[in-house]
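It is worth pausing here to work through a concrete case rather than discussing structure prediction in the abstract. The textbook approach is simple: state the sequence, then state the predicted structure, then interpret. We follow exactly that order.
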Amino acid sequence: MRPTLFTLGGAAVRSYHFFLVVAFLAAFGLFLLEVRRRRLQTGIALDLALFGLFAAVVGGKALYLLAHLGRPRSIGTLLAEGWSGPGLLLGALSGFALFVRHRRLDGFTWADAAAPSLALAETIARIGCFLTGCCHGVPGDVVFAVVFTASEVAPLHVPLHPTQLYHLLLSLGILVFLLFRRKRTRYTGELAVSFAVLFAVARGFVDFFRADALHLAQSPLSVVQIVAVVVAVAGLLLHRRLLRTRGGAHPPREA
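Step two, the predicted structure:
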């Protein structure tokens, strides 16, 4: 595809990094719109976004390095390469949890405001994955298979499942669903729970076709799929509990 998107002043701009930046900026813009629509404090939103970005970068890089410990590459090479998608999300969620706890905010209210932004970020970031060839699929004899002719990651001239596009389309569907449901929620936190469940299901489904899916010994499911099942089940149980205890009850808006 196109690992290098363009050159700027003689420096190569990588497709993956470019769309990762675009994903953050777009997600941040949507987050601010949601914050203003919900009449929350924009100052808190700025602090939360910056702290979440830092935590996401740390989590994404840490999980990427952990997953590639056995690869014959230098530490410098690994540091210069990409991030783990689940690591980015886990890092962002961990940073979010720490921030709202420290600032004593209503976590469900802010999580609802951030949920559509996470889906938008995932959608845009996968464009960079597709152009780079990372997160590629297994060989597949399907009419929509993709053949990479320029990639430092994906095998060349082999029909592969376009798992990056699977991710993109599923994330776009989640985004549309969340935007449709944001004014129809039955309890505070429903958007965030819906995102967690839908993202887990989508991620677990795509892992059936990803070439880099990591399996434990004799396990029919990958590590990501096992985690996805746990997250989806926990999310559904939480949804049931919150619907019963907080259905129809929305806390007052942040001052």
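Step three, interpretation. The longest strand covers residues 4-8. The chain has eight helices and two strands.
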